[in-house]
TrEMBL record:
A Pfam family per the record: TctC
InterPro entries: BUG, Bug_dom1, TAT_signal
UniProt name for this protein: C4-dicarboxylate ABC transporter substrate-binding protein
Classification via PANTHER family: TRICARBOXYLATE-BINDING PROTEIN, UPF0065 PROTEIN YFLP
Similarity section: Belongs to the UPF0065 (bug) family.
Keyword Signal among UniProt keywords: yes
Species in which this protein is naturally found: Rhizobium rhizogenes
Protein origin, superkingdom: Bacteria
Keywords: Signal
Signal peptide bounds: 1-31
Amino acid sequence: MTTVTRRAFSALAATALAAVMIGQTVLPAAAQELKSLHILAPSSAGSGYDQLARAVQGILQEDKLVGAVEVQNVAGGGGTVGLSQFVTTKPRHPSALVIGFALVGGVLTTKSAVTLDQTVPVARLIGEADAIVVPVNSDIKTMADLVERLKADPSAVSWAGGSIGGVDHVAAGLIAKTVGVDPKKINYVVHAGGGEVLASTLGGHATVGISGYEEFRAQVDAGQLRALAVTGEERIKGVDVPTLKEAGVDLAVMNWRGIMAHPKADEKDRAALEAAIATLVKTPQWQEALAKRGWIDSYLPAKEFGEFLAEEQKRVESALKEVGLL
């Protein structure tokens, strides 16, 4: 029989522990306590909310930041149907909601009885520029061509975009206003999510599509859609598409998305979720997701996100009034 001294045993144990931890993320203690998570994306599959929810789900599970993660899609009402269900349903597991500019606008334009003030900020995660696209066979070749059409007859230019009061709708209205067209006269057609916007634009049912660039990327790369401009202050890295300002429209509009906790979440679960997300944004997988999808890293922890959200609700309300939606 082999005899192992206490010192030798301690060395062996330390070696074994180090071997187990190689290649694994070292987690905050709080993050290890969250055994499961339900994420509600208040829109259809393939939408920007859904894409973020699925990316977060994959990394949380892959890096073992959380146990089982379930994503649920609930579309309708500019996100307010999902918001209402999230707030009023008693969750079986710790529960989170993906939100963004569109849901802030949806609450205002639908006069929703349930508001974002009934949820609890966890983190802002990303920023994203919209893209303005047309079918590749369209005779609209540039933003200047689109502006010319708008000035000639704004009602003849149909815009396929997301929910009423969302960033797509606001951006379309502000583009019209910036080029001297009454934003109340634009022909904006509401769709439940980016997948429907894409289908409508590809099918020729709309003159122009407006949504997050990632939702059009594959079709732009395949030569089925032509991107006229992106709405951010800067070009998307690796994408040869001008900004609105470069294309002659003096405007920049950015979307953002983040995570909220259920109002009835206990402090331990909420702290565990905040810790898990704080760890997630430092992982190589998250950096890969940002680069792959053209997302801008806009992480803010809970306190700062709550302060941003309070101000953002005021800014969005002002923008909606500016384009005649309130």
